[in-house]
What we know:
The chain has an 18-stranded mixed beta sheet that branches. It has an eleven-stranded parallel beta sheet with strand order 17-19-22-24-27-30-32-35-38-41-44, with no helix packed on it. By secondary structure, it is mainly beta. The chain has a domain at 290-466. The model is unreliable at 255-297 and 439-466 (pLDDT under 50). The longest helix is centred in the last third of the chain and has 7 residues, at 454-460. The chain contains one helix and 48 strands. It is elongated. Helix content is 2%, strand content 40%.
Amino acid sequence: MADQFLAAAGGNWTAATTWESSTGASDDTGPPLGGENTFLQVTSGNCTLDGNSNALGGLFMDGYEQTLAFGANTIDVDGDCDLAGTITASAGAALEVTGYFTKLPGEPDLPAALDIELNGTGFVETNNIGGGTVTVNTAGTHTQLDKALWDAFTLTLGTYRGRSSSPGWGMDVAGDIIRTGGTWMNSGDVQQVAGGTGTYNVSLGDVDTPIEHLLLGSTGVKSTLTGNTYAKSVTIGAGTGSVAVDGAFSLRLRVPGASDTFNQTAASGAVECNTIGAELTSANISIIYLNASETISGIVIYSRSGTRTVTMTGEWDAGSKGLHIMGSAGVAVAKLDCAGQALTCGAITLGASGATDRSGQIDFGEGIIDMASLAVGGDANADTAIAFASAYIKLSGTFNGNQGGTNPPTNTNTKGVVVGGVVTELDLTGETALLHLWPSSGGANLTNVTELSPLLHQILGEVYAT
């Protein structure tokens, strides 16, 4: 097949006079036939698609400075595709690429109306150029070489992965981020950022390849989960945005363990939450990674192996939804570190009952904690621990910090304050700092032996651990 070059005068795509067999030839050889490599160069003029193209061997636009106007038509490229110059498109426009896809550096953003369909196998490189609505929908593998900037992203079939020499490159998407099928193997950060306000759907990640960091509900954006979404860390409801959930889907926080093949050095993750909007209710979100046999409801912070810590780096308002912090069977420990941030939630349960150690830990830090109750689940959790630090805890129910048996929790205190509720079981043996129990606290048993009366709290306002 011959090569085709866009003439200096440009013209309509289907016109013979628009094309040359070489630069400056003026021999009217167009339009490009199936399998022909097609070049738009620095010497080429404007071009308007007045119909769909044949299946080109390749489309190469390095140095092109004019305008390629798609209208509502399609360019089909069976090989590699490099984009440059100004590209315009109307609803229905499509660019189908089977090989490598590159947005060349220093060029204008692509229009959101252009549907870029990545077919077959190849590399994807965007060079910090935004735009385009991307669909990966054929069996094959596309490998992202840098951070991708799209107007929307959909994975329905095939594999989308990060470069093998790094954990993965992320993407910023100003619209829907959807995975309805295929294999997701790109662990990089994903942010749902909009050019304007609107409602955008999210369903992405994989249990074995979670997103490194997921930003939902950014300023002006309403993010709606339309499928289970997996990430190692999440920012929820930042700025003036919000997050909602469609049906029974959930946001699942996955912190890989040392035994995982992916990112073996990762030892902790972060939940970075501003106030969760009213639409994100206790019935429709879980931050969770569970084996198929698990049926625990609520927000579950789970360690698959070893000790894994979820650290709050912003305020987290979970409403009345409970937190269950636990490890998997086989001496695994999950920990929530409030790290000085405010936490609002329902009942907190540390550890899980069972024949093997499934411990949970919480460090209340120095923030304000508004919670319903706390209980410890099972006496086989040797590493369960509660650290009051110097938190101010507003308690509306019962705080029972003893699981019984031979493995009571390891409890520490710097100068914590508990207001309200009933503290029924708590062992602070060896601790010398004060745990302040204010008058509304109904009772306390700091040594698992006796219960101090409410009157004592009303008079003293604080109790020494003994």
